[in-house]
Amino acid sequence: MPWPSRKRDKGAVADKKEPDAKIAKTEEETSDKEEEEKSAKPPAGSSKSGWKNWKKTKESESGGEESKITYCHWLLKSEPESRLEKGVDVKFSVDDLKAQPNQTTCWDGVRNYQARNFLRAMKIGQQAFFYHSNCKEPGIVAIVKIVKEAYPDHTQFDQKDPHYDSTSRKENPKWSMVDVQFVRMTKRFIPLSEIKAHHLAHKTDGGPLKDMMLFTRQRLSIQPLTQEQFDFVLSLEEEKPH
């Protein structure tokens, strides 16, 4: 029996803690054709100095060489609080994931072309942050890994599902999903507000979070992360909350 969909793409809202977020173009304002024609890869920036102790540690590990930017990690948004969509509760928290058989689930219901393309780019074994979104305190709560690469999303063909798409055909499905498995909880909850503070600082000093999609494309429920971005955010779990 299919479980509730994990998505917040079409008609998504910014996180409740981000009322002042400036969004140049919402997903619902972008036509399907425009989204489909967009490249799955966001523009690559260049890494610069400025994130102090964390960067010094990474330099000592790599011999001081800056790595080429590639997107090999992910951030997956899911709603931990009940919300009805066409009569179906789309709530799915990290505790719901942990309660699934083998702590594994399909990540279905994505209805945005760019987010879908990111899903299709995921590889087995890659890790992602499980991010609680559209709630009182949004932020990162856990780490999951990709255990099955993209395949057709069954919900697009289910007329009873809130994400049913009458324009999609089984011989040529529009929408994909992947399977993810729980890895571990982060050592502490990493709130959006803390990540945003580092993002703003890195915009000035050239740190790894300066172009993080969590702030440049807030409404996307599937977001890519560079190795540097993933490592930096993960390093925050070792610090005392601000």
UniProtKB/TrEMBL annotation:
One Pfam family here: EVE
Family matches, as CDD domains: EVE
GO-annotated cellular components: nucleus
Record keywords: Nucleus, Phosphoprotein
Chief subcellular location: nucleus
Domain EVE: 73-235
Annotated region (Disordered), positions in chain: 1-62
InterPro entries: 5hmC_binding (IPR052181), EVE_domain (IPR002740), PUA-like_sf (IPR015947), THYN1-like_EVE (IPR047197)
Subcellular location: Nucleus
Segments of skewed composition (Basic and acidic residues): 10-28
UniProt feature, compositional bias: Low complexity: 41-52
PANTHER family on file: THYMOCYTE NUCLEAR PROTEIN 1
The protein's name: Thymocyte nuclear protein 1
Organism classification: Eukaryota, Metazoa, Chordata, Craniata, Vertebrata
